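Hey L., structure's done. Input below.
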Amino acid sequence: MRFGRRGPRKASSIQRKNLIQNAKDLSKDPLKVIPECQDSCFLCKFGRAKRKIKKIDKYSDNKKKLKKYAKRGPDLSKAVAATILFSIEKEADLVTTARTLQGEIAYAKIGSASKKRLVGVQHFNDARKRLMAYSPESEKGFHFYSVGDKVVCTGKKPKPPKGYVKEAIERIPYSISEKDGNFTCGHIGGKAKKEERYLILNWKNTGKKFAICDRCARDEANLFIVLTERKLSSDNSKPFSIKGRWKMRCEGDCESCRLDDSVDVPKELRDDYFEGISDTEFLKRYTKECKSAVKSRGDLFVKGDVCYGKDLKTFLDQLDYEEWEKPAVVSLLKKTKGAVLEEGTLNELLEGYWDEYKEEVLSSILDDGEAIKEVLDKDIRPREMLREIRKEKKKKEELKALPEFKKLPPEARFADKITRVYKVGGKEEAINEMESHNLSDKRLKSIAYGFYSAFGKADSKRWKYEQAEVESGEFLAEYIDALLESTGKDYASKLQEVVKMSGSTAAVVLDSGEKMR
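Output:
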C-alpha cells in the first residue's frame, strides 16, 4: 500500500470531525484491530500487540498512560493508543493528509506509530483503508482480507477466507450469471450472440472464472481491482491470470480456418491490467495485439473484425478508394499478399506498408523514375503522392496527344510553346514562360495578350500593350481558349486558326508534311 511523494495537505474541518468520530468508535472496542486468524501460524505476528492493546483498553480515559503507550510498544498498539488519545483530546501535533493510491486520506499524527498504522487504525470503519494498518506484515508475505466489519489474516496462504469471495462477487459492476464456477456477462457462449472480443479473469485459488465481453466492458471498471480491493498482500495478482479472446467473422474462401482466437497476453499488458487499466482499455490493447499477430502472418486479408482469408477480390470490394487508385491498391496488395486494416481506407493501407513498397505503388500509376523521385522528395502523405504522380501522368498524356510539326511560323511556334507549358504546368507556369520572352513583333504581342485574356490576367498586363495589340488580343482570346482545350489533329487545326486570325498567311505544317489551312 504505497504513499505518494508529495508533501501533506492540511485536513479540512469535516475530515477532522470524521476522524474524531472514528477514534471514539474505536475506543469502544480497540481489540477489533487484531485480525481474526484463519491459519495455524506457529507464532501470531500480532500476539504482543494484542496483549498491549488489552492494557490500553483499561486506561482508555487516562491521558498520561495513553501518551506513554502511543510512544512505546508494538507499532500497531501505539497507533491504537494514539487514536484513543485523539478521541479524548481532539487535537494532535498535526492533523494532516497522506497521499495514497486511494487518494488523500486524513489522519491525526500523534505518538511514534508509523503513518500507515495510524491511517489504517484511524479509518478502521472503512473496509479498504483499514488494510493499511497491516502493510508491514503484508510486505513479509502475509495475506489480509476485509470481510464484513473485520479483518481476517490467512497467514502466508493466499486462499480467501469464508465470505470474502461472495462479497467480492457482489461488488462486480456487471450483470453476470454463474454456472459451475464460471461467471459471464451473458453475451459469451450458449445460445446468446457470441461477442468477438472478451476477457477471461481466472481466480485460480478459488476455482472461479469471470468473462466480460467488449459490449459490456466499462471505461471506469477493472474486474481484478474490484475483486481484490479489500485484499492486502505483497502481490494481489499472484492468484490470478488474465486471458483474452478475439474472434473474427469469416467471409473468406479458406477450406479450414487457421486462426486461433487465443493470442497470449503480453507481459506489459498483463502488468498494466493488474495495475489498474480499465477492462475496456485492456480489450482495446489486446485486440491490437491480436491484429498485430495476424498481420505478422502476412497472408490474410482482414478489415475490422472480418477475415476474408486470401480472397483479394472480395477484400478489394470492401475497401474505400477511388477508381483511378485501383492499380495502386492492387499493386500493393499483390506485394503484401495480405493486409490487416481497421477502417479499410486507402490512407490506412498505404501508410501501413508505404516505406517498403512506395516505389512499386507509384510505378503502377506512372513508370517514370525521375517523376517518382520528385514526388517522394515532397513532405506529403502517401495518398497525396498518388495524386501528384497522377497529375504527372495526365500531363504526359496531354503532351503525347499533341501532334508533331515539321514547320511552324513564328506565331504558331510561340502559341504552341505557351500551350504545351500550360498543359504540363498550368496557368502560372505558362505566364512565367511568356514573361521570359522579349516580344517586339506586334502579332506575337497580340497573341501574348490573347493568352493573358484566356487566363483571366489581362487587366494587370494591359499597360504593357498598345491599344491595337489589346484589341487584337481580346479578339484572339476565343481562338486561344479552343487551342488550350484541343488535342490530336484538331490541335493543329486550332493552332492554324490562331495564326490566321493574328493576321499571318503562313501555314502550320505537320510532321507528315500536311499543311493546315
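Residues 1-6 have pLDDT under 50 and may be disordered. The first strand starts at residue 36 and ends at 37.

-- N.
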